[in-house]
Amino acid sequence: MHQLMGGSVKFDPSNMVLTAGATPAIEILSFCLADQGNALLVPTPYYPGFDRDVKWRPGVDLIPVHCRSSDNFSLSITALEQAFSQARKRGVKVRGILISNPSNPVGNMMTQDMLYSLLDFAEEKNIHIIADEVFAGSTYGSKKFVSIAEIIDSEYIDKSRVHIIYGLSKDLSLAGFRVGVIYSYNNNVLAAAEKLSRFSSISTPTQRLVTSMLSDKSFIQEYFETNRNRIREAHDAFVEGLSELGIKCAESSAGMYCWADMSGLIRPYSEKGELELWEKFMSDAKINITPGSACHCIEPGWFRICFTTIALEDIPLVIERIRRVVESCKSSS
To answer: Could you say which residues form the signal peptide (predicted)?
Structure first.
């Protein structure tokens, strides 16, 4: 994490709890910060796995904070205020905000000013912030990723409210190794998380392999640079191919996916129409993409398409399959 951020942040190992991937890290923090029936605010669209990680066993609810395409699905404090106030009117206790930065599925990143505003909001409402930063190193745009860890050195900020999640599955392509970490400034949370992590331990063989790999700093740096270049190349090729079909994507700077607007292809303009288009991609094009409704997107017709699961030379084949579906939708309408 220190190397990923160019040495700008020093991380204290005593503030870390290792877990078998980011999934149990989110679940553990849900157990630590909230009781059953409490809630976390989460900007939409959001990673569908959050529903599983936060709701299934911890029993914590997720309250969507709806963001819209007109703002490139960026979060606003006004939207947070509204969601918080509505939850309080319903008698729901909000215990924190769960963000993914860089965003999954949109691929945009929070600005430094927005992170400061989030911290102010959390302090005002007496709630916590869980920052999922698993795509921190998978950037390809001109914008620099800013970790929340970089901006909390100010004296007035209550660090005990901030909890960061990271893992090796995305930036180092080690999904099957199941290596994640909770980084918290709250001693009580760390103590509880350490006990709960006993049920999601990283295997000893994995620890030995990963320790050896991470110790080779020159390799890690070279890997990050190579990976970023490859993601950028795949992203540009895929987005260009979609653009030629009349499909626009949200502006993004990170991640292994694009957030594509196919609202013009759905009939009716609703979740039903969106799911029918998703089924058409599955049955006719043999392509599985994530419908926006699975990410709690308030606007029908948006889809997340992962472009790093295929080789660069196979992108034209996928674009051709998408073209056939697009033409079929246009002819039928």
So the answer is: none
Q: pLDDT digits over 80-89, tens only?
A: 999 999 999 9
SS3 137: coil
pTM flag (> 0.85): yes
Residues 298-314: b if buried by 16+ CB within 10 A, e if exposed: ebbbbbbbbbbeeeeee
Give residues with Cβ within 8 angstroms of 127, minimum separation 6: 94, 95, 96, 97, 161
Structural domain containing residue 25: 13-215
pLDDT digits (tens, 9 = 90+) for 252-284: 999 999 999 999 999 999 999 999 999 999 999
Confirm if 36 and 59 have CB atoms less than 8 A apart. Answer: yes
Last residue of a domain, one of 164, 184, 215: 215
Beta strands 16-19; 302-306: pairing state = unpaired
Separation between Cα atoms, residue 277 and residue 291, nearest integer Å:
9
In this structure, is residue 201 part of a structural domain? yes
Give the span between the Cα atoms of 27 and 145, in whole angstroms: 25
Flag whether 178 is in a domain: yes
Count how many residues are written for the chain: 333
210 with 223, same domain: the answer is: no
Residue 264's Cβ-count burial label (10 Å; 0-12, 13-18, 19+) is middle
| The CA-based dihedral angle spanning residues 43, 46, 51, 55, taken in that order and rounded to the nearest 10 degrees | -20
Of the candidates 61, 23, 41, 16, the residue with the CA atom closest to the CA atom of residue 186: 16
Q: Are residues 73 and 48 in the same domain?
A: yes
State mean pLDDT over 198-208. Answer: 93
Contact present, 119 and 233 (Cβ < 8 Å):
no
Claim to verify: residue 195 and residue 227 sit in the same structural domain: no
Please tell me the total count of domains within the chain. Answer: 2
What pLDDT is recorded for position 153? 72
128: pLDDT strictly greater than 70: yes
The CA–CA distances, whole Å, from 220 to 139, 171, 179, 299 equal 15, 10, 16, 39
CATH code at position 265: 3.90.1150.10
Residue 6 domain-assigned (yes or no):
no
